[in-house]
């Protein structure tokens, strides 16, 4: 351990303090890389001082030769820091994609929290990760929520290091005498995130300056605040445009007043429609499906159905298809989804 406390380490400790109530039991997700070991070091200090109770969980994805040794070394360093308990969990990944690995990893996280009684799990994502996430969201063209990047907190999962960059986490590791692992897949061009990291970001830094990651992370914070406000507004508005209270509507159907829907501002209207589809158990509609659903609301020549995923179908109802005096409605029907599930 070095003689002078790096400011980054103080920031990491304070980041945890700001997110974790005193006395809480937490786990640190540690891969053995610089980011997660720096997070482990910060959490271990708070564990030693009695501010929190912190352990660690190391996931062995078994996707690379020597993964067991890497996981064992990460666990050994976590124990040396004083974290307790420290568990290594082997997972079987269905396929070789990033998403498959993530699914297996988060299932193991939930298992570890249940086994230890931890209420929260700390993840070592940094400002650089956030900047890359914003660029990926921009490339997908999927709206404000995608540009918002990774949330600092989502359920029990917390990211206290989003204000630090990778250079800071490496400095923390050097100060604490920790040997971090360089994952060879992080340089593989097979993954889009790696191409953003090693090809796109250097160009942006060269053209726009070294503050680009910081600016992108700030964009994410601003976009998230806007997105969360609009999502909350849309959730309340959905209840207002339903023809009857949600509890009175069939479990596989939602009927909404078209006049009220059409009166909504476009950003709210699109979110109301997306939330309605998700409420029926289908995936959130992509840009093309949401555009077709919006056109149906606005009065396309066809009254539908518009087929969404799940499957959920949307139909515009009016005139003889409704009881006398009833207002025109948009009907989302998930009866086919129920049949598939049963």
TrEMBL record:
CC terms in the record's Gene Ontology section: cytoplasm
Catalysis performed (reactions): cytidine(34) in tRNA(Ile2) + L-lysine + ATP = lysidine(34) in tRNA(Ile2) + AMP + diphosphate + H(+)
Keyword line: ATP-binding, Cytoplasm, Ligase, Nucleotide-binding, tRNA processing
Annotated GO MF terms: ATP binding; tRNA(Ile)-lysidine synthase activity
Domain tRNA(Ile)-lysidine/2-thiocytidine synthase N-terminal: 26-199
tRNA(Ile)-lysidine synthase substrate-binding domain: residues covered: 257-309
Pfam families: ATP_bind_3 (PF01171), TilS (PF09179)
Gene3D superfamilies reported in the protein's UniProt record: 1.20.59.20, HUPs
Main location per the UniProt record: cytoplasm
Compartment(s): Cytoplasm
E.C. no: 6.3.4.19
PANTHER family named in the record: TRNA(ILE)-LYSIDINE SYNTHASE-RELATED
Protein name as it appears in the record: tRNA(Ile)-lysidine synthase
């Amino acid at each position: 351990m070095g003689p002078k406390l790096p400011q980054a380490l103080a920031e990491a400790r304070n980041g945890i303090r700001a997110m974790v109530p005193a006395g809480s039991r937490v786990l640190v997700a540690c891969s053995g890389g610089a980011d997660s070991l720096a997070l482990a070091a910060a959490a271990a200090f708070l564990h030693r001082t009695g501010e929190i109770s912190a352990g660690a969980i190391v996931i062995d994805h078994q996707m690379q030769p020597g993964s067991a040794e890497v996981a064992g070394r990460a666990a050994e360093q976590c124990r040396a820091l004083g974290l307790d308990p420290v568990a290594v969990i082997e997972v079987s990944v269905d396929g070789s994609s990033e998403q498959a690995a993530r699914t297996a990893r988060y299932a193991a996280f939930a298992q570890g929290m249940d086994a230890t009684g931890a209420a929260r799990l700390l993840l070592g994502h940094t400002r650089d990760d956030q900047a890359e996430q914003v660029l990926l969201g921009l490339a997908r063209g999927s709206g404000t929520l995608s540009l918002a990047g990774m949330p600092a907190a989502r359920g029990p999962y917390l990211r206290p290091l989003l204000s630090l960059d990778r250079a800071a986490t490496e400095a923390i590791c050097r100060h604490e005498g920790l040997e971090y692992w360089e994952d060879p897949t992080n340089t593989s061009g097979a993954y889009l995130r790696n191409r953003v990291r090693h090809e796109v970001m250097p160009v942006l830094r060269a053209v726009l300056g070294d503050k680009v990651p910081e600016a992108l992370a700030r964009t994410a914070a601003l976009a998230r605040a806007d997105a969360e406000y609009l999502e909350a507004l849309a959730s309340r508005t959905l209840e207002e445009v339903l023809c009857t209270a949600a509890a009175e509507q069939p479990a596989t159907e939602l009927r909404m007043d078209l006049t009220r829907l059409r009166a909504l501002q476009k950003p709210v209207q699109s979110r109301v429609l997306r939330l309605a589809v998700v409420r029926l158990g289908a995936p959130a509609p992509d840009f093309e499906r949401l555009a077709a659903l919006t056109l149906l609301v606005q009065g396309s020549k066809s009254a539908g159905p518009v087929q969404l995923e799940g499957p959920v179908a949307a139909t515009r109802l009016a005139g003889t298809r409704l009881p006398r005096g009833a207002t025109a409605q948009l009907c989302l029907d998930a009866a086919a989804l129920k049949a598939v599930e049963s």
